[in-house]
Amino acid sequence: MIWMWEARATPGRLADLRDWAIDALGGREGEVYLSHQSGGDLVVVILRLPDAGPTDTDAATAVHPAPLDATTGPATAPLPVPPDELVTGSPHAWPFHQVHPRR
User: Which domain holds residue 78?
Assistant: First the structure.
């Protein structure tokens, strides 16, 4: 599963939100992008995770997504909630499944 996560940075805090997102990856391989928009700068994270959820539910906090369920959808985003002072509004996350090229 591939997750796209994005958050709008508080004005003047883009570098801080970028650094927070890199740290929030927790050693997982992910891509972090910056987007300068007229409505506010964004940090976007692309994270590839196994389709199955983690097996150790005690260690599976908000940084790991639950598997997709046809009735409820994804349970959590792939990253924890960032500190309020770094973001304007709430972060958004979407799960995707790659179809081309096949992995």
Answer: 2-50+73-96
pTM as predicted: 0.73
Q: Which of 85, 69, 74, 82 lies closest to 32 in space, CA to CA? A: 82
35 domain-assigned: yes
In a domain, 6, yes or no: yes
Residue 58 lies in a domain: no
Q: Where on the phi/psi map is residue 63: left (φ > 0), alpha (ψ -120 to 50), or beta?
A: alpha
Task: Please report which confidence band the pLDDT of residue 68 belongs to, taking 50, 70 and 90 as the band edges.
Answer: very low
Nearest to 21 by CA among 74, 86, 94, 88: 86
